[in-house]
Amino acid sequence: MTVPGRRSSTFTRLLRHGFTDPSAAERLLDSVELMPVRDDPVLLDALGATADPDLALLGLVRLLEAQPGPTARRELLDTLIAAKPLRDRLLGVLGASAALADHLARHPRDWEALVTYEPRDLHPGVEEFERGLAEATDPVLLRVAYRRCLLSIAARDVCGTIDLAETAAELADLATATLRAALAIARAAAPEDAALCRLAVIAMGKCGGHELNYVSDVDVIFVGEAVDGADEGKALRSATKLASHMMRICSETTVEGSIWPVDANLRPEGRNGPLVRTLSSHLAYYQRWAKTWEFQALLKARPVAGDIELGEEYVAALEPLVWKAAERENFVVDVQKMRRRVVENIPAAEVDRELKLGPGGLRDVEFAVQLLQLVHGRADAALRSGTTLDALQALAAGGYVGRADAVQLDDAYRFLRSMEHRIQLYRLRRTHLVPEDEADQRRIGRSLGLRVDPVAELNREWRRHAAVVRRLHEKLFYRPLLDAVAQLAPGEARLSPEAARERLVALGYGDPAAALRHLEALASGVTRKAAIQRTLLPVLLGWFADSADPDAGLLNFRKVSDALGKTPWYLRLLRDEGAAAENLARVLSAGRLAPDLLMRAPEAVALLGDGDGGGLEPRERAQLEQEILAAVGRAENAQQAVTAARGVRRRELFRTAAVDIVGSYGTETQPAEADQGALVDLVGGAVSDLTAATLAGTLRAVVREGWGDTLPTRFAVIGMGRFGGHELGYGSDADVIFVHEPWEGVAEQEASEAANKVVSEMRRLLQIPSADPPLLIDADLRPEGKSGPLVRTLKSYEAYYRRWSLVWESQALLRAEPVAGDEELGRSFIELIDPLRYPAEGLGDDAIREIRRLKARMESERMPRGADPKLHTKLGPGGLSDVEWTVQLLQLQHGWAEPGLRTTRTREALAAAAAAELISVEDASILDEAWVLATRVRNAVMLVRGRAGDTFPSDGRELAAVGRYLGYGDGHVGDMLDGYRRTARRARAVVEALFYGA
């Protein structure tokens, strides 16, 4: 008798044996069915050894209740207590799988399948499973027999008699036997169809790879041929009926549930293609139309049912094509893109629980192994295994993967697959999500041998293995390349030079021999620099390969490393600052401009880090001006001062280019900037501010050297065009006009001579050949253009504009904004021109006609000969000129009445016009999109080619680089050009209506 308030000794023992609900367990142990053995310590110990003792005990009681009578019940209990193999197997299954417990309760004599313990029963193959299914003559009986066979596999699995690889192989063998049995049932139901055709069932995916899960779609492809003398069309129809019936037999739900879905969507053309094709039809498709992923899928093709001879002919015919897949253009990119697409399609709420598809999941290992098989399997037949772990072992043995990496990946893959098996085994449901419920995690952890704190240990081990996979799956491609050239560890298998070249070509390197030389220079030796670079390069090579020009990325990295490799802060930056290495890789492989700017002063690489170097955030104009003026103040003469100012400009141009590239490409932790307009505004604002600060410093240097602290005249620089609009690109000239006003008492001629000398000296100093890019000053928008004086007084401008000003000059003044020099004089100039650019009551009809005439003339006369107008970003239809002239016409007509239109910035004016309902929101959006895209293309061309251009490059690699900058993957250049034409065409339609009044 138990004393009230105290636990019974049984209750305590149950807790100690791992029961989580001892009260319920006590009641079950007191049941009539277990009365004969309730006090037997053997039973309690065996239950405590299971993954879920509560579940195992409940399943046992249900099984006993289901026995047909006392004799059968006694037989089960006696065998259970006397035979340890049965006890471990039966209770192990009951403690791991509620679904198999349900099966045993429905079929109470099936426990006898676990009694025999002969060596031949420990590793059954297809023949043994076929015998187990032999009496199944209809779909219901097939399900019962299948579950009985599955019961024996699960028992060996949970007891540790077979390991993960053997379990997966047995599940694949059982699937093979089941497909054969289902096809036999289908053939028996339609003998006339069976007589007309030969039908082969090709297993794909995990079934084909001999590594199936407990619950998984069984992927297949069907091959059909007519028997001798039969009509091919009739034979294929018959084969299709048989194949469809076979699929239904396995997939449909009956009173005994279903087995698993049979999925034929890996066939040519997927679900849109015929279910059954002839061998010649398959071959024709793969020779002409197949995508890279389809050859990757064929790695696991294996004939399993039906006409095995036909199936073997299919594999033999397609095998040569599989091993040529790595020669396809963009091969590696296609495979990696497929992997990224899988990750992107995972619901955000599930990605952290995804064992199979998430980052660091099973698919990462499988994709990496398959990619290396396809690259090197052409020359090495030892790699041609459909089984992931066997292929990984072969890759390590051949030196294609580092042995230590292979061991870590093997361990991680086995652990993650074991988790997946235990999750699926519980309910026999197809899932790859780690359950959130603690009880489920406890059962999984205990089933994997984690008994101290199962939940915590399971999560720790799972995260550890996933981190290993994440870290290694990309490096797997690149680390052996370094081992091949560094040659540090003797005795280990290495890539041959030919295999290394093959891998580099597959990864997108155009000059593998040069790439290997760079790698050898970077990774060889025992210095600290070489050791750190060996650690970094596997990751960097992957980032380079993700660009349009991997060769340039690697070469540029070598140049930077040669320049900075002995400086401790550089190596520390790349090693310790998470973003720096990836940012550097993106910048070095995105084109010529940013690397050229960096090579002129490699220490600017510090800007790419996360620390105190200022990072990649463009600096404000006030900060820039303060730094440049301070440098000018320290210089001994004007040339030295302007050299310092140009050095700051070069560094800040690099900073801007880097933030633009990183924002356009995205990084592993930060996706690409979705708002393309934000990137355009960032670049335009940063380059314009930098140009203004450079002009301010140059002006200060010239004045100080020629006149001391005070010039004989007040002097201001007015930004025009894209400069005044804060819309400069990387290669833009500085469009300006100059204004001066003599100080009181200074003769006008003296003041004019001084002002002209300042302009001349500024232009000279900013164009002196040096390591820094020149800044060209263009004053052609001044009154009278090139024929007029470079500098005028405020009164001269007033007189000119009052008497001679043309409508195009009013239009040009819409972008005028003071950028350097005397601020008060700059404001006075703006007050002078405001009535011109925002005329009261708007423009007259004659002026509007004149603007339209000028625009039409420009379109016809200024387009470069041979250029494709539809792809010319400046003068082509729907390009910059179209949008800007349309916006400026609205400003000239309505700026006097709408304050929002009084801005030098195109996008701001466009938004203000829409807000004032001068243009529809939809039309404004179309024009804005076209303007942003055209600006982005111009910026891309400058970044990629290192020189300005208004059209897309003709060189294929440069064009691909522009596409990457704009967000298009490799192989999508055509989509980029089509997208540009489409955007420009829509914008031109708006321009025709708004500007030309068509």
Describe this structure in a few short sentences.
The protein is mainly alpha-helical and 998 residues long. Helices cover 61% and strands 5% of the residues.
Strand content: 5-15%
Radius of gyration: 38 Å
Share in helix: 55-70%
Number of separate helices = 44
The mean pLDDT is 91
Number of strands: 10
Please state the overall shape, judged from the principal axes of the Cα atoms.
elongated
Q: Gap between N and C termini, in Å?
A: 102 Å
Oligomer: single chain
Largest sheet: 5 strands, mixed
Helix-and-strand structural type: mainly alpha
Q: Spans with pLDDT under 50 lasting ≥5 residues?
A: 1-6
Note down, in words, how this protein is organized.
The chain has 998 residues and is mainly alpha-helical. The protein is 61% helix and 5% strand. Strands 1, 2, 3, 4 and 5 form a five-stranded mixed beta sheet that branches. Strands 6, 7, 8, 9 and 10 form a five-stranded mixed beta sheet that branches. Helix 14 links the parallel strand 2 (218-226) and strand 3 (262-263). Helix 4 packs parallel to helix 7 (98-106) and helix 11 crosses helix 14. It starts with 8 loop residues before the first helix and ends with a helix. Residues 1-6 have low confidence and may be disordered.
